[in-house]
């Protein structure tokens, strides 16, 4: 397992150049069976990351381009009258896949954005009163432009909370960008530009189960609880992490430990994933720092405050 996970990371990271940490976080998000939000300016590799993970994990992939006139039925599907059968037949939309890229999700209207909520929360969709179960594994990777860009709608907190992690790729380093501009391509890329599969959907599900079984000691559970409680009790925050946020932190730390070939969580695992878990869920009342996670880490000792 450790060797295959390392191969997945290295394969995707070679395509993105100098984004090893972001690739590892994205993989940890999938291992934690969560959904990922990537927020950044256009052209830094958000779509490339999603494609790379789908390719290397052998997942059925659907890309949905969110635009202002996109309708919920364009995502979920629609019933069409079949004259031969003399009845309405449901035609599934692109949501019926294993890895969904919701590209530029905040360019669509709030009504269309909400079409993803049931699918993300319950792995099912309801169309015309009939519930359709989405086969596992099912995960969403959404991209969005910064909210100050024109033509965007801010995601509501209820939808932001459905994303286990949010991360940003940022600009590449000068050395990495020079490789990109020089036209270098990793040797393992297929002729069509796709990455060779390293694992299968069944293996991903097995890894997700293994991540869920990674041991979290009582002492580290206390530390995690102290971080969550501080976000709720400290007046520096408008509101604290929800129970879903606490569960997300635990699952992400377990997945990060698995990527590091361990069956137990260390304090560093919690600290590493906390920014991707907390920064889109929390708001500081006074901008003492750009990162709510950084504030928490600076004010909560590893012993949980005891």
Write the layout of secondary structure elements.
Layout: H1 2-16, H2 20-31, E1 36-39, H3 46-56, E2 61-65, H4 72-76, E3 77-82, E4 87-92, E5 99-103, H5 110-113, H6 117-122, E6 124-127, E7 130-133, E8 139-144, H7 157-160, E9 165-167, H8 174-181, H9 201-212, H10 218-233, H11 243-259, H12 267-278, H13 292-299
Parallel strand pairs: 1-8, 1-9, 2-5, 5-8
Antiparallel strand pairs: 3-4, 6-7
Helix pairs in contact: 1-2, 1-3, 2-11, 9-11, 10-11, 11-12, 12-13
Describe the structure.
The protein is built from 13 helices and 9 strands. The protein has 306 residues and is an alpha/beta fold. The chain has a 5-stranded parallel sheet. The protein has a two-stranded antiparallel sheet with strand order 3-4. A two-stranded antiparallel sheet has the order 6-7.
The amount of beta strand, in percent, is: 5-15%
Categorize the overall geometry: globular
> What is the helix tally?
13
Give, in order, the helices and strands. Answer: HHEHEHEEEHHEEEHEHHHHHH
Radius of gyration using CA atoms only: 20 Å
Under the CATH scheme, the architecture of the largest domain is 3-Layer(aba) Sandwich
| Mean pLDDT metric | 88
Tally of distinct domains? 2
Main sheet record: 5 strands, parallel
- The spatial strand order of the largest sheet comes to 2-5-8-1-9
Number of strands: 9
Low-confidence stretches: 186-192
State the helical fraction. 40-55%
In the CATH scheme, the class of the largest domain would be Alpha Beta
At the third CATH level, what is the topology name of the largest domain? Rossmann fold
Q: What is the CATH homologous superfamily assignment of the largest domain?
A: P-loop containing nucleotide triphosphate hydrolases
Distance between the termini: 37 Å
Q: What structural class do the secondary elements suggest?
A: alpha/beta
């Amino acid at each position: 397992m450790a060797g295959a996970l390392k191969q997945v990371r290295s394969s995707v990271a070679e395509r993105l150049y100098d984004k090893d940490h972001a690739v590892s976080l994205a993989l940890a998000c999938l291992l934690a069976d969560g959904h990922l939000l990537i927020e950044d300016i256009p052209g830094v590799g958000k779509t490339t990351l999603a494609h790379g993970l789908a390719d290397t994990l052998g997942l059925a992939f659907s890309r949905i381009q969110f635009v202002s006139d996109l309708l919920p039925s364009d995502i979920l599907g629609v019933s069409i009258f079949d004259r031969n059968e003399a009845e309405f037949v449901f035609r599934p939309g692109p949501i019926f896949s294993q890895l969904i890229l919701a590209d530029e999700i905040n360019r669509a209207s709030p009504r269309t954005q909400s079409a993803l909520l049931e699918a993300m929360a319950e792995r099912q969709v309801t169309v015309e009163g009939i519930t359709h179960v989405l086969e596992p594994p099912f995960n969403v990777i959404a991209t969005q432009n910064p909210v100050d860009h024109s033509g965007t709608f801010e995601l509501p907190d209820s939808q932001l909370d459905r994303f286990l992690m949010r991360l940003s790729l940022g600009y590449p380093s000068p050395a990495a960008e020079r490789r990109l501009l020089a036209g270098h391509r990793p040797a393992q890329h297929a002729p069509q530009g796709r990455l060779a599969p390293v694992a299968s959907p069944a293996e991903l599900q097995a890894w997700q189960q293994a991540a869920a079984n990674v041991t979290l000691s009582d002492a580290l559970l206390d530390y995690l609880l102290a971080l969550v409680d501080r976000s709720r009790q400290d007046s520096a925050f408008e509101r604290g992490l929800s129970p879903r946020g606490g569960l997300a932190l635990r699952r992400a730390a377990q997945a990060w430990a698995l990527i590091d070939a361990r069956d137990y969580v260390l304090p560093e695992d919690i600290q590493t994933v906390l920014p991707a878990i907390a920064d889109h869920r929390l708001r500081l009342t006074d901008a003492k720092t750009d990162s709510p996670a950084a504030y928490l880490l600076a004010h909560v000792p590893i012993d949980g405050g005891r």
